[in-house]
Write a structure and sequence with these properties.
This protein has twelve helices and no strands. By secondary structure, it is mainly alpha-helical. Among the domains are: about 100 residues; about 110 residues, no CATH class.
Length: about 375
């Protein structure tokens, strides 16, 4: 009697144990397959929607195309019927030449409309061609005007370089560029301007270029030479030292001729005869020769500064004053003194700021040309 009562308990325990145990491998595979199928279905849904949309559009287009084809067929049939009717009317008119009043006002109106439309088309064609020609002419005119204005600007810059900076090379280059710009403009009115430019260019090319660097170096060489030149004080000192070395007692004779000869010999031994252009104001005091040489150097350096500043007046004044000081305080009878004086005279004769020709003619002509082109 105990076995039948235990059977339900055993079944209940088995069911609990089955419920507690994990799922079998077959159920796992089924779940994975279901997940994959769900993912595929989710991915396929947009594609399916796109295919359906494309199919719907295709069907819509096909229906529209069919409607258009049907409408075209109907129009073709109507046209065929109209042609057949027209031929029939013409044939009837030929067979029965009876004066029939036909209302052809619509035809005449249509012909009038056709002729007016054709005339409008011809007018529009002419207007289009005219606009194209105007565009081409306008482009060429703009190019001409731009090149002429460029030449005017280059001439102005060349004149500034020439008058303000005395830059002859830059002015010649800019004149050539202005001539090329006028040539590129293609205008027939630039001949006189180009002729003036050619004339002024020839004048500038014949102007001698001033070697400022060479003049500066020559002045610098003069500064060095003034430090080695003999001044009057040094000549006197040399004479006194030489007289002390060569002094001998003078024998004075008793006769008159001997006295005169002895006196002349004595005077020639203590005096140095030198011819002056003008009488010096004063002999140099001992030690003043250094100050004189420094002043000469400063005056020559002032001439160098005037050369760089293109100040011809200051340049001439400095060199003239340097020459006056040399003639007054230096020994110019020597070879070094004569060479120094000659170099100073040559430098004084140089005009460091020569008057260069102005480009007035070409600038005036191109101003008139630009005014006439506007």
């Amino acid at each position: 009697m105990a076995e039948p009562t235990e059977t339900p308990k055993i079944l209940e325990e088995l069911s609990k144990s089955n419920a507690a145990n994990p799922k079998s491998p077959s159920s796992r595979q089924k779940n994975k397959a279901l997940r994959r199928f769900g993912i595929v279905v989710i991915l396929f849904l947009p594609i399916l929607a796109g295919i359906l949309f494309v199919a719907y559009q295709q069907i819509t287009l096909q229906s529209q195309l069919a409607a258009l084809q049907l409408e075209n067929q109907q129009l073709s049939q109507d046209l065929t019927q109209q042609n057949s009717r027209l031929q029939q009317v013409v044939q009837d008119q030929l067979n029965n030449p009876v004066s029939i009043e036909v209302d052809d006002s619509a035809i005449r109106e249509l012909e009038t409309n056709v002729s007016s439309v054709g005339q409008q088309i011809r007018q529009m064609t002419l207007q289009i061609s005219e606009l194209e020609n105007r565009q081409q002419i306008g482009d060429s005119e703009i190019n001409q005007e731009w090149k002429i204005l460029e030449a005017e600007y280059l001439l102005g810059i060349a004149n500034q370089k020439l008058q303000l900076e005395s830059d002859l090379a830059a002015a010649v280059f800019l004149l050539g560029q202005a001539d090329q710009a006028l040539l590129a403009s293609g205008s027939n009115n630039v001949f006189t301007v180009r002729e003036a430019i050619a004339s002024e260019l020839l004048i500038l090319q014949n102007v001698e270029v001033l070697d400022r660097e060479g003049i500066y170096l020559r002045l610098n060489n003069l500064v060095l030479q003034t430090q080695a030149i003999d001044l009057l004080s040094s000549m006197r000192q040399n004479f006194e030292s030489r007289r002390g070395d060569d002094s001998q007692p003078v024998q004075i004779g008793t006769d008159t001729a001997g006295i005169i000869d002895s006196s002349l010999e004595f005077l020639s031994s203590i005096f140095v005869w030198r011819q002056w252009d003008e009488t010096p104001e004063a002999m140099l005091a001992p030690g003043q020769d250094v100050l004189i040489k420094q002043n000469l150097s400063l005056m020559l350096e002032q001439a160098q500064l005037a050369l760089l500043m293109r100040d011809n007046n200051l340049y001439q004044q400095s060199l003239t004053k340097s020459k006056d000081w040399l003639l007054r305080y230096a020994v110019i009878d020597s070879t070094a003194g004569q060479a120094l004086t000659l170099e100073l005279n040559q430098l004084i004769d140089i005009d460091i700021d020569p008057l260069l020709p102005a480009l007035t003619q070409s600038i005036s002509l191109i101003s008139q040309l630009t005014a006439s082109e506007r």
